[in-house]
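Final paragraph of the annual report: two paired records, presented back to back.
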Amino acid sequence: MKKGKDIKPHIGIFGRRNNGKSSFINMITGQDVAIVSNIAGTTTDPVKKSVEIFGVGPAIIIDTAGIDDSGELGNKRIRKTMEVMKIIDFAILLIADNNFASFETDLISEFGKLDIPYLIFHNKCDYTPLTDKTLQQIIAHTKQTCIDISALNSNNKEIITEAIKKNIPKSAFVKPALLEGLVKKKDIVLLITPIDSEAPEGRMILPQVMAIRDVLDHNCICVTVRETELEDFMALGIKPALAITDSQAFGYVSSVIPQEVPLTGFSIVLARMKTNFYDYLQGTPKIKDLKDGDNILMLESCTHQVSCEDIGQYKLPKWINEFTEKKLTYEMVSGLSSLKQDINNYALIIQCGGCVVTRKQLNNRLKPAIEAGIPVSNYGMAIAYVNGIFDRSVEPFLKNYTMP
C-alpha cells in the first residue's frame, strides 16, 4: 500500500531530451538520483525522489522522459510523461540552446488545461546563454520570464529553490487542518475506530492517525475507542464536542451518540480538506436516482490486500444495492490508474477519502466526471446517505461552509 509520503507536493521536471533534466534533479537533491548521459533518451520511465526544499519543506521531484522522444517506444515514454501531469502540483520546464517551439508551447498548453503553475529555466547557460530574442518569445507566449541557469553549477541551487518557493502554490505544501472551525481549545473529541480484518496489524490507518494528531494540534482532549466500547464510554456521562467515526460503523454509532452531539466520519473530514466539498454534497443524494443496469465507479487512492470486509469492494456496494433495490454494476480502480471505460459510461462515481494522495491529484481524478456532469460522492458520505444520516454527518461543516 502507498505510504503517506505521497501527500507531499509533487514537482514535475519536463523538457526535451538532453536539456539536462537529470542533472537539474541531481543538483536540487544533492544526490546522484538520475542517470546523467550525453545519449538522448537516457531517462525512460518517470523517476521520483523525495527532497527537502527550504521554505517549502518535503517534496517529491519527478524526472520525466524527453517530450521530443521519437519512435514507438519514444511515444510510449511521452505518454508516461504526460500522465505525470495528473499528479503534480507544480511544473518546471527546462529549455536549452534557446530552443522554444511547439514542443514547449504544447506542453505549456497542457499545464494550462490542468491549472498547473510552472516555471521556465534555460539550462546550460555556461555553453549557450539565453538570448534576448528567446526571452522575448517566452514572455510573449507565457506572460512570464525565464531564468538562465546551469544545472552543473551548484551555486544556482539557491536561485532555483528561491524561485520554486516564490511560485509554488501554498495550497500544495500548507496543509489545512482537518478540524478547522469544528472544535475549540480543551474540547473533548471522540474518535470511534472499529478494528476488523481490513485494519493493518499493530497500527491504525492513516485517516485515524491524522485525526488524532489534528485533535492534539487544536489543544483538545482526544478519546479513542472501538465501537464495541462506545456505549461503555457514553455511560460515563462525558459529552464530547465532536464525534468522528469510521464510516462502516455509522449506523450503530449514530444510534448511540446523542443527536445534540455533532457526528461525522473520517472520510467526510478528509473530503472537506481534500476536494470541493460542494460537489460531494450535490452528488451524494443522486444515489436515490440510480436505475437498474447503472454502472458505478469506485475509486480508491491506495492499493491494499482485499478481504470480504473491504469497504469499497464489498460492504458499500452491498449497502447501496439494499438501499436502492436496483441491479447495479460496480467497477473498482485503485491508485491513480487509468479508467477502463469512458467516464460517461458511469452513473455515479464514489471516491475514497484520499488520505495518501495530494489535493491536486484527487481533484484531477474527479475533474473529468464533474465536467461531464456525472455525480460524485465519497465513501463516508455514501455510507451516511444509505444509513439515513447524511444530513447529520455533514451538518458540522455547513455552518462554516459557503456554497458557491
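The closing record of the year follows.
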Amino acid sequence: MQLGAHGFLSFAGKIFGLTWSGVDLFFVLSGFLIGGILLDQRESENYFKVFYTRRACRIVPLYYSVLLLFLLSFSLGPAFTGRIPQLYDKWIPPWCYFTFTQNFAMFARGDFGPSWLGVTWSLAIEEQFYLLLPFIIRFVPARKLSALLGSLFGLAIVLRIVVSAYHPESFVPTFVLMPCRADALMLGVLCAYAARRPGAIDYLARHSIHLYAILGILASATVWTATGSYQPGSVSMMIYGYSLLALLYASLLLIAISEKRGPVSMITRNPVLRWFGLIAYGAYLLHQPINGLCHSLLLPDTANTSKHQEQAVTALAFLLTVAIASLSWIYLEKKIIAFGHSFKYKLKVAATTELFRVPSRQASR
C-alpha cells in the first residue's frame, strides 16, 4: 500500500508523536544503571548511606532550584502569571513537589498540575523506586532475585489493568503511579542482573544478530500500533503498550552494552549525543517553563501569530534550553555530583560475589 504525500506526513507525525515515550527509555536506563550500582555494592557496609547521599546530590539541587524558581515567579502575582496561565494553572500544593509525592496528587486529580512542573511526575516515580530497590537487592537472596524482578514486571501490567478499570475516565493514574510503571524500571534492573552473569556480555556480542532481529520485531510492532491508537491513554497502551516499549528499549540497551561495532554502538558513542545525555536531566526539567515563557513573551498576540513564527520561537526555546542546561551541568550539577562521589562504598569483603562481578568489557565503558 502506497502512501501519498499527505498520508506519509500523517504517518510520520504519528511516529514522531511517540517521542513522549522517551520517559520509558529513561526508566529502563535508570533501572539498569541504578540496579547495576546496587548489585555491585550490595555487600558494602555503608550501602544505604552512600547510595542515598549520591542520589540526593544528583537529583535534589537542580530539582529544588526549579521548584524555587516556580514559586518565585508565581509570587509575582496575576499580572505576570496571567500571561502564561498554562504554566501555573491546576495548582498542586508545593509540599507535594518537595516530598516527591506529586504523582499521588496528579492521580487524585486526574491531571498533571501546572505545566511548569508537569514533567516531575517521573521524578516522583524515580524517588519512590529508589526507596524500594535498594532493600530488594540488599536482602533478597541472589538466587531468587531474577524471579522477583520478573514478577514485579508482570505485576505492573496487572496493576495497570486494575487501576484503569477503576479509573476509566483518565489515563493519568496508570501513567504516573510507580507500581504501574515498574515494568520498565524492573526490566532495566533485570538487564543489569543478566549483564553481570559470567560470560553474558560475550554471549550477547556473539548473538547480536538475534538481538537486532528482536529489536526489529519490537520496533515494527511499535510502528504498527503507532498508526492506530497508541497514545498514553489508549486501552492497548494501558494493557501492554508500556511493556512493549520497555522491551524495545531494553533490547536496544543490550545491543549498546555488548556490540563492539555496529549502528547502535556508533550512535551511542556519538560525542554530540553523549553531551545531550549529560545535560538531559536539566533539559527535561527546564524545557516546559522555557518554552512557555518564550511563547508568552515573544508571541503575546496568538490570534495573529503565524505557524512559522511559532516554529521559530519553539526553535529558540530549544536552543535556550540546551544552553541553560549546559551551564547548569558545568557550573552546578557536575560539581555537586563530584562531591557526592567523594563518599565511597566500603566492602565487607575483598570483592563482590562472582554473580554480580562486572564483566571487563562493560566495566571499561
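The chain has a mean pLDDT of 87. This concludes the annual technical report; the extension proposal builds directly on these records.
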